[in-house]
Amino acid sequence: MLRPASAVLALGVLIGPCSAQTSPAALVAAVRSAALPLSELPQSYDPVLRAAAQAKLVLIGEATHGTHEFYRTRAEITKRLITEQGFDAVVVEGDWPDARRVNRFVRLEGTDRTPEQALSDFGRFPRWLWRNTVVRDFVAWQRILNSRLPRETRTAFYGMDLYSLPTSRVEVLRNLTSLDPGLAQRARSRYHCLAAIDPTLQDDLAQTDIEDAQTCGQNVDNVFADVRQLVAERGRRPGADREALFNLEQNARVVKNAVAYERASLDLFGGGSSWNIRDQHMAETLEAVRTHLGPDARVVVWAHNSHLGDARATEMGRHGELNVGQLVRQRYGAGALLVGMTTHTGTVTAAPEWDAPAQQMPVRPALAGSYERLFHDTGLPSFLLDLRRAPQGLAQERLERAIGVQYLPGTERVSHYFQASLPRQFDLVLHFDVTRALQPLDPAGTSP
């Protein structure tokens, strides 16, 4: 998810002039000619399926965290990728332990009997991100599909974010206690330093001194190394529960990377870019998922455009920030397909401030000089554009909008726009001119 508005204020830039080679009217006409209209029919997404034919990872982004059309379209494309091309898993911009419960549900494990129950662990702000009607229906579909498949071929649902430090810590210690009590005790001692970041992460009343805080990074690294060694050894045993071992390893990875993220965010003893640490963790998680599922695994990724478009094509890259889309492209080349989505106006589910209840908010019409306004000017209600064969002039940088969990229409220019070259950022883009707000499962106005 996008962090508070201060994280994007620095992205505001002046609107650049139109290309000298292509007039605005000619560019609009060229886009209209190249656009492939979208409809409710599944075959509308055939170009995405064709483009994904050789992909190992398909990254499907969204310009907001609260638009129904983005979620619905992404779910429908993913269903076809799974059923027609054999994709093995969905990995979302959500926390690992929360998605773990969903994964057990869709794989016909655990005790949950409804998708609403399975999504219950997505309880912190912004819970509408995954607790909404579209995700509920997709999770129900995935469970039905898996009920018809052998256990070893059932599709999976994973999270790749790192905001679950307290929960992941508990999970590591709980699992180690049953597998190796001695190792669990060493991990508990090493995790003691986490109280320097969050006092609630302390098992007793002992004080955490400055030395503990300074060495915490090494402590959690050591736990992760021990866990990986244990997982590798136990995974070779006949009848090993590979999914449970993978869950242990990933929770230890979350703790390790969350400590680095928190140190950077809080500026504790040096740190670096918290954005980069977070996206590197997400990319690392994708690699771990593919390793776990096997060398031929194919994965669909759901997250915001800002994470899944190539950062090198945006203002972010010039500020030294990288993201999942860049890292995946650098690793997989043509084996990665990056898909973005945009809208001109409508309504969105968002919050006016961090930790505030969700609201259905009107989305202001896109600014002049933006990709969204250019696409609006085509007069097409919705369309798909193959950016690998983009019309001349489209690659010139212009404004692009990003609405995260907060929407601040009063300062929209500096809070929600950044400069980008869309054809270098994504392979395909889907535009929906007028969109409506995502419907949360929780009542409107409910506090997070």
UniProtKB/TrEMBL annotation:
Superkingdom field: Bacteria
Keyword flag Methyltransferase: no
UniProt entry keywords in alphabetical sequence: Signal
InterPro entries: Emycin_Estase, Hydrolase/PRTase-associated, UCP036794_erythomycin
Keyword Kinase applies: no
Signal sequence segment: 1-20
Entry protein name: Erythromycin esterase family protein
Lineage: Bacteria, Thermotogati, Deinococcota, Deinococci, Deinococcales
